[in-house]
Inverse folding.
């Protein structure tokens, strides 16, 4: 509970979630609001209307990030919350939108009670967090913190060849503000967990300590395609079998962490041909950079050994690599204390997925609040979180934002 | 050496191989003569012209099999040789064609020396042995021996939806003869090994004892697609990992035989998603039916155990199943004796690939002669066999056909 005894109005928050969820709604459930699509524009329009109605100053920057400002008593760096309203091709209505709309609910609550915070508040919606249409993901927040140049971001293209900058102009969200002009005093993002841990442990609130480092690597084994009937086992150079062995090795290596072989592509991929070539991807994540590097080294060694044992060529390349991000200890404490004060079960935990907050952490003290995802399902129309959990998360966002906005 | 002291003319045989190999020749090498394509028609036209020129009676049956008859002294069941002239999409010029043209060379040699055999001789080219365009493979010989009805065969369609019967009529090879009307006294097929065994052992001639039984089975593991970053290993139901484990298990199970996982298809096949579903194929072959069944049972058990351990659903279905075929012991002996007589190194061996001879074995004593495939490469433009090996094989075909045609 915050010092002012305020709580959010869950029915109002749920109404906005449903209303935004109707924009780009898919037949049979779920949301398809790919970044810079017509549905994204309609969602942005709705969000900006709500911001105006709440008396926020709306600022849109050149990469399309939307910021709604609420004045504070002081003219100083704001406390920012936010997330994104773009979705994967067929996602749920909570991923991203929940955090943005909970931010609006915090503002609405403060407006209703005529509360003026010391620091200004900003509710942000960052462009193209999902990366489902334009790569990389977390693009808007990445540009905001200077991790990618504006021109590179505008020049990215989707699979149809459409340029991001052109699409941004087309939907009317190529704003005039300079990306990164706002340096928040603190950043706090509320999000669904997108994993099964909170639900499995019966815990309502995650005080997110950081984001796992990510290592994506592609391995390609090169052997010899041969006839499955006429080639004795000892004379084979089976690249598909090597890929299978590496997939099994990855599971052994990462038993205490997470590691995933998501793609396996033997070639020619025919029932009666020994695969002459096989490609697989290895996704390793860890909250500790040293342990992530150790896992990378062990997987690479396993791949080398498998290739050598089967007389195969081996090539590999990095597809993505991010070091782990540690959130601000004071903000993590603040989330845990706020959960305690409202009597919600909570635990400290890492984020397995990437979030805009990890980008903002480069320029400001940052943190996140997680609420449970039922069955851990995410990026799927079946994504769901219990109403009482959504309400609890939004109240904690209110509490933490008030604390941050009143801090010296 | 045969009793008449005859040998084939390799230059003439090689010339016909080159000439037929030019029909459907691919840029950069190799042959694309898919069954009932325009190239197949052109190849058939050339073959029939050669048969006519050699004075053979040409008979074409309703499934398009071509038979060139050479009269014998007796009116009785003929000794038949043959193979096929269709190819895979990008194959070599020897697979199939070598056996048919060596048969023509035997006839040419006998004509040149005015030899009349006791029994008639028939040189056959069976329709759609490869199965690369219409399924199943070995179709023409299968229909010939009554293993598939003519109407079912004519009603098969290629991936473009074209009906085999229509294509057969289009290229002018829907013949009037009833399939299976010819019951040979014996059948002998000369073919490249399509495997590496003869070359690896430095042996020129394979006396083929039989054809491995084939078991093709598809396994599908069904788990739960999950986020690769947020889903702890213990909560995963990773179907892709299960497929990899089964592929490794197959290699262990079949160490003394052959077994191949040619296709692995995880879904959704994305770098950052734990595969929720994975499909793989298992190709098992053995010359012994009991051992083939044992391998099938062990693979099925491994799949069950892997699925149970990871809480996955499992479905499987047979894609193809042929029991091993044993060739006629007297014909196998005859091939070995003939190789001995000409001073060629030889060994008894199974065929790893399927051949028309295994179908003919259902209705007649049958056998095969193998010559080495360099590096075991087959179904590939790089397919190659040394000239001296091709010559040796054709001479053995002559010797064995003469022996069979003079037998009581």
């Amino acid at each position: 509970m915050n010092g002012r005894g305020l709580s959010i109005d869950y029915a109002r928050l749920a109404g906005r979630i449903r209303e935004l969820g109707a924009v780009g709604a898919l037949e049979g459930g779920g949301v398809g609001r790919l970044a810079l699509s017509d549905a994204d524009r309609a969602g942005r329009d709705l969000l900006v209307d709500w911001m105006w109605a709440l008396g926020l100053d709306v600022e849109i920057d050149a990469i399309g990030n939307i910021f709604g400002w609420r004045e504070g008593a002081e003219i100083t760096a704001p406390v920012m919350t936010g997330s994104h309203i773009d979705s994967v091709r067929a996602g749920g209505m909570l991923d991203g939108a929940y955090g943005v709309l909970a931010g609006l609910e915090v503002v609405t609550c403060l407006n209703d009670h005529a509360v003026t915070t010391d620091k200004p508040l900003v509710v942000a919606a960052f462009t193209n967090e999902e990366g489902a249409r334009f790569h990389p993901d977390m693009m808007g927040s990445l540009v905001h913190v200077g991790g990618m140049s504006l021109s590179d971001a505008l020049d990215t293209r989707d699979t149809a060849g459409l340029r991001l900058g052109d699409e941004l102009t087309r939907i009317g969200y190529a704003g005039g503000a300079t990306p990164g002009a706002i340096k928040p005093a603190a950043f706090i993002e509320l999000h669904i967990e997108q994993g099964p841990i909170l639900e499995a442990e019966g815990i309502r609130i995650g005080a997110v300590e950081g984001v796992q480092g990510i290592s994506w690597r592609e391995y390609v084994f090169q052997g010899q395609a041969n006839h499955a009937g006429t080639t004795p086992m000892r004379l084979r150079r089976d690249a598909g079998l090597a890929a299978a062995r590496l997939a099994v090795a990855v599971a052994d290596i990462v038993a205490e962490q997470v590691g995933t072989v998501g793609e396996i592509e033997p070639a020619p991929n025919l029932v009666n041909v020994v695969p002459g070539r096989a490609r697989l991807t290895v996704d390793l994540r860890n909250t500790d950079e040293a342990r992530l590097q150790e896992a990378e080294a062990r997987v690479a060694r396993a791949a080398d050994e498998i290739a050598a044992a089967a007389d195969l060529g081996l090539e590999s390349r990095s597809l993505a690599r991010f070091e782990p991000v540690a959130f601000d200890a004071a903000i993590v404490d603040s989330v845990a204390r706020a959960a305690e004060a409202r009597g919600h079960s909570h635990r400290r935990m890492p984020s397995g997925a990437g979030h805009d907050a990890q980008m903002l952490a480069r320029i400001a003290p940052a943190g996140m609040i997680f609420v449970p995802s039922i069955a851990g399902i995410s990026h799927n129309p079946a994504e769901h979180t219990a109403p009482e959990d959504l309400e609890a998360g939004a109240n904690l966002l209110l509490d933490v934002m008030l604390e941050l906005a009143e801090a010296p």
Remarks:
- The two ends of chain B are 20 Å apart (CA to CA).
- The longest strand of chain B covers residues 213-222.
- Chain B touches chain A through 60 residues (CB under 8 Å).
- The mean pLDDT of chain B is 96.
